Amino acid sequence: MLGKGLKRKLEQEEENDVMSCPQDASPTCYWLQRQTVLNLSLLKLHSRPGHSDPGLARRVLITNTLRHIQDELRGEGGPIPQPFPSTGAPLGVVDGCRERPADCGVEVQSEGSLTPVSRLEEDRHLLLCLSPSISRQQPPSSSVIKDSFTSALAEIEDLCPTVGITTLFTTEMGRSLTSDPNSRQTHPDLSEMNSGLDSVSSLSDSALSVFGHTPSLLTDFSLDDFLFTEIDSLLFDNVPCGSSLSASSGASKVVSMVTDDLVKTLTGYGNGGTSQSALPSNQTFKLDLNELDHIMEVLVGS
Amino acid sequence: MDGDGEGQSRWCLSQVKGAVDDDVAEADIISAVEFNHSGELLATGDRGGRIVIFQQEQESKSLPQCRAEYNVYSTFQSHEPEFDYLKSLEIEEKINKIRWLPQKNAAHFLLSTNDKTIKLWKISERDKRPEGYNLKEEDGRFRHPSSLTTLRVPVFQPMDLMVEASPRRVYANAHTYHINSISVNSDNETYLSADDLRINLWHLDFTDRSFNIVDIKPVNMEELTEVITASEFHPLQCNTFVYGSSKGSVRLCDMRASALCDQHSKLFEEPEDPSTRSFFSEIISSISDVKFSHSGRYMMTRDYLTLKIWDLHMESRPVETYQVHGYLRSKLCSLYENDCIFDKFECCWRSDDSEVMTGSYNNFFRMFNRDAQQDVTLEASWENGSPGCPLKPWRVCTGSRRKRNEIGVDCLDFSRKILYTSWHPQDNVVALATVNNLYIFQEKPN
């Protein structure tokens, strides 16, 4: 980036091609820059400066930039010849970008590749703290998960039957529930602007689907994420189910109240007559999908 | 304008105010600079809500060499931080704008505003005090009635000059959004205040009412795409004002047309050049400042990369466009990331409207001579050169540095920016603010 007296050498120039690429250069370059701007904009909109009111002018400008990108993506529509797992050369670009997440911000996951552990750690930290600087992964994955929850549940059962479904469930619900109270605390117009953010999440959703991601593929990846992190916290905490859930699902009291209710509802289904201790990691936990659907509907308020 | 062949400009550093160490407290960051109508007083506001007024030395006025000698005249706390309990938000005490009223008597009046509240301050001098009271001793103790044997008339005795600042009016609770501009009308009775979505008209004497004259808030806030960024009254016509928007357009409104000036009388907008279109086109077109010329015939707008001079009779395009720092066009993505792209630069006219000036990064400021069609880049720095020494112009190049006083684009320091500038209303003296220092430059008389 730019700073005091930093001189760029010739060999570093290609790193910065992403930033300085003219618009009429290769479509990959343009796509990369657009993705960068998209991610930056989402990051800026989600980060809250804290106690003082963020400027309306700034938010409007960022939102307009996002809308412009959204319109472009909509205009392109349909199946896009994008650099994706199937093509050769762009894959190199994608992989290169993944190694520099700060610069590139490309969230592409090629088929069959696993998330580096460092990324999992990063996501867990963000997830547990509900910190304002969300990872770029969060907006797309949350909306995708909301959209394809039932299919995801079926996949969860197949993927990892030993981990408690409740923890995943409450974490997800916690996150989607806390987003509302947070926005209401700020400027009322900000909350009105935030409802526009839902369209932005769907923008990233549509952006990802445009880029050829099948929702289930991304869901697999993201759910693995959460499942792995929940295993960690369960193994280390070893406390009764309710308190570990409220610790892991964030600081908001609203969340913990909801999760407590959920836990009572769901453990009644799963554990049957067993004790109220921590979900043993080696116990199979099967839920009635219909019951979950019903609860899901009630909570989401569809 | 560029000076002689040895690379000297006609400008030299006169004074630097403020601490010169690297440790800058947030509260000391200057956020407003404004000369008064005579140029005798120079006011600065900072993020801590304080106002410091400098006064030109009386003796030096007669000596052309030492014309610009300003010393502290008064310091006072204008605004305090507040807390909006309803929205759980802090209201910053940072001074956004200072505007002087034309002087009518011995006292000076100025308007200062933060995000929510405007205040009218009276700055007056006291250099005499009454002495010889009958009922009180000199130290204020009351005299015993039985000790009174004679009567005397109190007389004024000279005392050390004391400058008092007192708030005369507080204009509060009229703005939901952040105030970005205030402008005193030429009728000297009213002024306007503009926030992101509304402009209000006030009478200076009344604090309990203001009239909304522009309202661009949409019914559904999700449809909001444009905000007001700057506004100013015409210097001569008391019914005319302009406001700039975040989309790069300026609207001129006539208050005689209707009470609510949502319909503009003129719309100044330049069609976008499709060859320079980028993701950031809208952001860099956002108007950060709008200033009428002293003549009232022209208007200047500042957006992120350019200065544009408009003839009020022609709405289709500006009559002059000046590139302030066009070399940043290829860096917009990085500037978006570090938020510099949202910096709001001010601009100002010379007294005879022949030159305009604005700030840039790396503590550079740019001066454009409209008549000679020349421009110069100068640096506000107390390290290089001593007061009285003419400044050497700078050049920003895209390649590697070649000569002295050339700097590469990648070496610019984006944390050192000059956002606030003011030109003396009569003399060729300019005042500008770096992060926490006030610089006063003076043009060498030929």
Annotation keywords:
heterodimer; A: 302 residues; mainly alpha; 14 helices; 66% helix; B: 446 residues; mainly beta; 4-stranded antiparallel sheet; 2 helices; 32 strands; globular; disordered N terminus
Can you offer a commentary on this structure?
The complex is a heterodimer of chains A (302) and B (446). Chain A has 302 residues and is mostly helical. Chain A has 14 helices and no strands. Chain A has helices at 17-20, 27-46, 56-76, 89-98, 101-104, 117-129, 138-147, 149-159, 165-185, 188-210, 215-237, 241-248, 253-270, 289-300. In chain A, helix 3 (56-76) packs parallel to helix 10. The longest helix of chain A has 23 residues, at 188-210. Chain A starts with 16 loop residues before the first helix and ends with a helix. Mean pLDDT of chain A is 52; it is low at 11-24, 78-150, 160-260 and 265-285. Chain B is an all-beta fold. Helices cover 2% and strands 41% of the residues of chain B. Chain B is built from two helices and 32 strands. Chain B has helices at 281-285, 332-337; strands at 11-17, 30-35, 41-46, 50-56, 70-77, 82-84, 89-91, 97-100, 108-113, 118-131, 155-171, 181-184, 190-194, 198-203, 211-215, 228-233, 240-245, 250-254, 266-268, 289-292, 298-302, 306-311, 320-323, 347-349, 355-359, 364-369, 374-379, 395-397, 406-408, 420-423, 429-433, 438-443. In chain B, the strands form nine sheets. A four-stranded antiparallel sheet of chain B has the order 1-32-31-30, with no helix packed on it. A four-stranded antiparallel sheet of chain B has the order 2-3-4-5, with no helix packed on it. The longest helix of chain B is centred in the last third of the chain and has 6 residues, at 332-337. The interface between A and B is large, with 42 and 46 residues. Chain A: Residues 175-196 are annotated as: Disordered. Chain A: This is SERTA domain-containing protein 2-like. Chain A: Residues 176-185 have a biased composition (Polar residues).
